[in-house]
Each structure stands twice: as structure tokens, then as C-alpha cells.
Here is the input.
Amino acid sequence: MSIAIGVSADGVRIPVSQARVAEIARAVLRSERVGAAMISVSFVSNRAIRVLNRQHLRRDRVTDVIAFGFRRAGRGAPIIGDIYIAPDVARASAGENGVSVREELVRLVVHGTLHVLGYEHPETEARTRSAMWRRQERLVARLAPIRRRARRSRAVTRRTPRGL
Here is the structure.
């Protein structure tokens, strides 16, 4: 079996290479012992992600990442999924959370890949205490060169992704 990751960034700029995005998704799949997968990662405009969010999740707002995992055809069949990321939303989130845009994009690729694999989290503030979130942050720590920006004097905890 094999792993195929397709990455597109039509019309939007991202500060990481498409090859690096594919490497991150592959690393998540390897960490979860997935041997066969076909996943697309698409970087889209705020307008496009809002349309996807409204059409598929009935939420009329922008968000940073949306992922769709498709039911496997049978045991041993590949994992198939699509991940959509809005880099402009990621830039804003990075600034709000005092992390680099690259780190935030790594987080969103990891987050989306985990959703494709079937991981879920609560839709409340409890999401940051969920097993999925803890797994995500361990992977981000391993995959992203983390350079925290200097924060204001108030303590800041990691905010949850926009619109989720």
C-alpha cells in the first residue's frame, strides 16, 4: 500500500512549500500507523472556506480548517480525505496566539489530518483538553520549529481554531 498526498494553493500564498505540507501530513499518518491513504490538502481563500463551511457544515462564517474523511471501502482500503485550509485565517490566529504563521499552518495540517483519520473533539472550550487536541499538540511540537513571539504581560492560553 502507499500514501499519496496532493497539495494545492491556487490563488493563495502560503509561507511553506507544498512539499513540506505533504511531509507533515505523511508524518501524521505514519505516527498513526496508516499504511494506505489518499489525502488532498487545499489552501483556499476566506470566501471559499466560508462557502464550504456554509454548504457542508451549515456554519455561515470563515474558519481556519475543514476536513472531510470518507468511509473506508473495507478493511485494508486506503484512508481517503480532503483538507481545506484558509491561510489568511491562519495568519490572524497566529498573531492572536503569539505563534509563527508556519507553526499555525503545521497545526492546521495536523488538525485536519487527524480529523480525516476519525479523531473528534468537543465543540466547546473543552476541545483543548481532548485526546485529539493533546495528540495534535504533541505532533506540532515535533513537526514545527516553534518560535514563540514575545507576549503581552497577560497570560495567554492557546485559543481554539476559528469557527470550530
Q: What stands out?
A: Confidence is low (pLDDT under 50) at residues 148-164.
